[in-house]
Amino acid sequence: ARWRYVPPDVATVARQGLTERSGQWIRSLAHTGVPTIGRQLHPDGGRVALPAGTGGRVHGVLEIAWPAPLEPQPPQVVRQVEALAELCAHTLQTYTDAEGSDREPRVLPDAAELMDLADGLHDPALVLVPHIDASGQLVDFRIQHVNDRFLDPAGRPRAVVNGALMLEAYPMSAGGSDLFQRIERVYATGEPFRARRMSLTALVDEVPLSAVADLSISRHGTCVLLIWRIEDETARLASLLQHAQRLGRIGGFEENVLTGETTWNGQMFALYGRDPSGSPVPLEELGAHAHPDDAVPVGRFLRTLMHHRRPSSAAFRLQRPDGVTRHMRIVAEPVLDTDARLVAVRGAYQDISAQHWTEVALAATRDQLAQSEQQASERNRLTLQLQHAIMPPTHTPLAVPGLQVAVRYRPAEEEQLVGGDWYDTVVLPSGLVMLCVGDVAGHGIEAATSMVVLRNALRGLAVTGAGPGQLLSWLNIVAHHLTGAVTATAVCGLYDPVLRTLRWARAGHLPPVLVRDASAAPLPLLKGMLLGAVPETAYEEEEVQLAADDTLLMYTDGLIERRDRSVEESLTHLLSEARTAVATLDQQLDRLLTYSRSDTDDDTCIVGIRLG
Fold it and tell me: What CATH number was assigned to the domain covering residues 391-611?
């Protein structure tokens, strides 16, 4: 049922398993980026997809998931998996046969229907049926029927080819053209094959002769229909020229100077806006159809071409009968006889209106774009200066006995994504240490200025001695009333160096992570609405008793946020990296930034403390 939601030609794991007989052996699915219709379990684990087929036909694909990355398997395991795929194929075939047991076999009716279809085609066609050996393996295809349009490259009559095996009649089909392999794949998977300008080779008196043809191979029931069309080079080039003229809006003309006869192709009438049943406009009347302001370049063009007998070109505005003015370019050259007399003129018109108006639009907006770029650059520079003024790249460590404090700030990779992430660590007059991180919604100068207001407001409010819950309640009032109704998330903690306790509260932010011994886990989630959403609200707070060698991490979502993963999956990866033992707190924060899987290019702030 899940296959119904997979668009055609999507490169899933199962579909890739059809490309090779040995299937696909993938060490880790997450590293390939290839989707699967299976349940999203073990995304980092290995995958194997093998075609399940018997008798040359694939009845399905066996996909197996491993919980961990898949290392190269020994030959005996590979053989067991291949045997399992073959068993699945027999099961599918048995199930299909059981469903259709009340119907008679359709082998001959399939071939008969295809024979009638092939005889009605205007191109050479072969009807092929599979040739299975005693062990049930596909070894060749028998030519069941050749239609009336068929001509054997070696000159053999149709009766000789009809009924023969494909590889016996055309041994070169298994060579460089891979024709036989294409037929095998179509029969196995049921996917039709189309190719243009494919080289086909046949043996004529032991001499290989090649031809270029358009090819079509399709499976119908138990048979395969092979159709080809030998390429007509003259017709192909004529069609190519017509398409080129249409796409380039080019029309060609020829004017006989001796007789005065002018010949246009169909595109010329379209460029001039004239009825194809009307008469062409000769060159001597070109000035009458051009804009009066373009009389000089048109006259110069005609003099160079007709009088000086040299190739010439000109750009002018064509005034059509329907009132539309088009910008045209005309290019022409003289045709001279053996006595250097002018006998004809050949040339072409091209409609360059789109190019002209594009150049006009670009010229009109060039100064405006330059001014906008300068303003955007200045805006980003001011935003970065403001951000660095509040959060400089180097942070002076706090001098607190028995406590290590480290912070990291990683700006966005793109300047226009400068956001409102912030942190603060400060020793209060009471001796407590305030630790906080926050994230203002949005990017640019507005987010950066709002970040400055909230950060400074929290630092000022903290000297009152209030707890973290009360501080966030006051900060919510600031965000809602005094900063233009911005919204933000934050987590705030007050650490007591004497009691080694941390009181903390959160406002819509991810909780801190506590690393103790060889384990890492987030603190219990407290109730707390994001800042600025409502005029007044209360925030729950909790006290945590810390021990020697404990590490506490506060961070913004730029550390873990991914477009293709849930927050739970990203948080699991963060906890896995956080519990890795490192020598110093600075090294641990550097490691978290290095191995972060975030792909949103957002700002990232991390505050970490470690007890001595």
Answer: 3.60.40.10
Q: Is 500 left (phi over 0), alpha (psi -120 to 50) or beta?
A: left
Condensed to tens digits (0 to 9), the pLDDT of residues 3-25 reads: 677 776 677 777 777 766 678 88
Nearest Cα neighbor of 150 from 179, 125, 180 is: 125
Q: How far is it, in rounded angstroms, from Cα 176 to Cα 358?
A: 48
Give the number of other Cβ atoms within 10 Å of residue 57's Cβ: 17
Q: Candidates 1.10.10.10, 3.30.70.270, 3.30.450.20, 3.60.21.10; correct CATH number of 243-351?
A: 3.30.450.20
CA distance 588 to 593: 9
Q: Fill in the DSSP letter of residue 103.
A: S
Residue range 307-333, pLDDT digits in tens:
899 999 999 999 999 888 999 999 999
Side-chain-facing half-sphere of 581: CA atoms under 13 Å: 4
Nearest to 528 by CA among 512, 505, 549, 511: 505
CB atoms near residue 376 (< 10 Å) = 13
Task: Say what the pLDDT of residue 203 is.
Answer: 65
Closest CA to 206 of 161, 167, 172: 172
Determine if the pTM surpasses 0.70: no
Smallest CA-to-CA distance from 425 within 611, 608, 549, 610 is with: 608
**193: β partners:** 217
Fold of 107-231: Beta-Lactamase (3.30.450)
Kindly report, residue by residue over 342-373, the tens digit of the pLDDT.
999 999 999 988 888 777 777 777 878 888 88
